[in-house]
Amino acid sequence: MLLSLIHHLLFCKLYLQEAHISNMDFVPKLAPFLSSFLIALVYLVPLFSARQGQYVIEKRLNTLVNDHLVTNLPNQPEVDFRHYAGFLTVNETSGRALFYWFYEAATRPDEKPLVLWLNGGPGCSSVGYGATQEIGPFIVDANGNGIKYNPDSWNREANMLFLESPVGVGFSYSNTSTDYNILGDEFTANDAYAFLHKWFLKFPSYRTRMFYIAGESYAGKYIPELAEFIIDRNKDASLHINLRGILMGNPETNDAEDWRGMVDYAWSHAVISDETHKVISLSCNFSSDDTWSNNDCSDSVDELLRQYKEIDIYSLYTSVCARNSASSDQKSTQVMFTRASKMLYCQMPRIMGGYDPCLDEYAKAFYNRLDVQKALHVSDGHHLRNWSICNETIFNEWKYSKPSVLPIYTKLIGAGIRIWVYSGDTDGRVPVLSTRYSISSLGLKITKSWRPWYHQRQVSGWFQEYEGLTFATFRGAGHAVPIFKPSDSLAFFSAFLLGDAPPSAR
Ligand SMILES: *[C@@H]1O[C@H](CO)[C@@H](O)[C@H](O)[C@H]1NC(C)=O
Ligand SMILES: *[C@@H]1O[C@H](CO)[C@@H](O)[C@H](O)[C@H]1NC(C)=O
Ligand SMILES: *[C@@H]1O[C@H](CO)[C@@H](O)[C@H](O)[C@H]1NC(C)=O
Ligand SMILES: *[C@@H]1O[C@H](CO)[C@@H](O)[C@H](O)[C@H]1NC(C)=O
Ligand SMILES: *[C@@H]1O[C@H](CO)[C@@H](O)[C@H](O)[C@H]1NC(C)=O
């Protein structure tokens, strides 16, 4: 009860701050503040007169104040927007709950779209990567184990929702352990879809808002799969979600093209020899179900992976994290490749990348703090949950992965969904060549030919528009593009939301 009250007061305080900051908004902003204050009075008076009615009042207050509001996140920089975190149950019978963190847009959240961000793996956390290394307002800070403000946060342009999915990733869990034996693409899309409807019940003002899904890496599979799920169910008006577009960075798209691109990129960027490349070209058929039964092929792909183990495959020209020898060992096992299993390497979670290759460790330290977990409503303040940035068991035991989502692209284009794909051109894991091979195989008509796009008077990369799809590169960025090019990424995101081409003049 007391907690709800405190939440309410803080909520009011935030409104007041917001009103202070932009004078022009003062009157409309003050009105809801005053009215919520009055409503609070109406609810509070009976509390003091009739103690027996406390439970009822508490329930009424909870519907008035969202109990997922985050009010005391340790080390949090002061901000003028609200953010919420917590679990939502997606399946009552097996007890599955997904963890989310939602940041309102920094200004005018009522007028801005809603964007769901997903990271990949499978098994990696959208909170650990997307929210706190790439595009969230609070990013992990190298000194100590705190967080700092990110001036290029994507919540400047949209209301940003980060989801840890599926169960077993980050804080998300299932009370039925056998659920972990059936994780795959479809299971993930199903639970993410259930999550969205649960989330809209908690945040009803977003129910009909313009909605987009964005993400990177293995989310290249998750995103079109979830979009298709939504489109199919939108036929039922009561389930309608206002999906407008999808945005994907260095996305896994089509296993055969992704492999071809990875091999050609390693050769053209001097990671493997002409001889190795030639053997792979002659002996590997990446379209076959039986690629690795050819020894020449698997030996030479092994050679490629051996070379990549020496550097950061996700960012060819930056250093690896040398702080912690234990994590370097882990890195070797993550790049391990089993001849029998094409799946294993195909779905490898990303390791480290970015200017600071040790970011994963800072995130791990931060999210394993009891005070942080309490503030995010994942712990009662006594029992620590074990949080890791990627769950290797999930990755290793993934049951089903769609070999290609290109047929879904075609379906989404037909449904009028905006598709933008971007690629950091120094990533060796899902390199720009993989993405170009995949898009090229769609055979779409080119509507605006290849040209540079600019940010702050410099070439950020190149882009090309097709009927139904826009493709762009980020010059000198690794796998997780916004870590490398925060300001360019925000400008690009803004263009995507508007549906305008990225700026093509200096
Ligand atoms: C809950 O999950 C189980 C599998 O663990 C599934 O059989 C069941 O259909 C799900 N229930 C709903 C309502 O989706
Ligand atoms: C999982 O089990 C715990 C302990 O019984 C319970 O507190 C929690 O609510 C359950 N989670 C879900 C999503 O049902
Ligand atoms: C990782 O996933 C497995 C199931 O695949 C689960 O049992 C385990 O609790 C998860 N680990 C963490 C740290 O969440
Ligand atoms: C590669 O495998 C696919 C699928 O099995 C097959 O259709 C194709 O003919 C093969 N290509 C070559 C060059 O053998
Ligand atoms: C947390 O999870 C990791 C990875 O699954 C595991 O190695 C570690 O032992 C776990 N720690 C605790 C305290 O459970």
From TrEMBL:
Keywords in alphabetical order: Carboxypeptidase, Disulfide bond, Glycoprotein, Hydrolase, Protease, Secreted, Signal
GO cellular component: extracellular region; vacuole
GO biological process: one example: proteolysis
EC number in record: 3.4.16.-
Enzyme class, spelled out: hydrolase
Major location (coarse): secreted
InterPro entries in UniProt: AB_hydrolase_fold (IPR029058), Peptidase_S10 (IPR001563), Ser_caboxypep_ser_AS (IPR018202)
A Pfam family recorded for this sequence: Peptidase_S10
Superkingdom, taxonomy of origin: Eukaryota
Localization in the cell: Secreted
SUPFAM superfamilies reported in the protein's UniProt record: alpha/beta-Hydrolases
UniProt GO MF annotations: serine-type carboxypeptidase activity
The family this protein is said to belong to: Belongs to the peptidase S10 family.
Protein name, as recorded: Carboxypeptidase
Species this chain originates from: Linum tenue
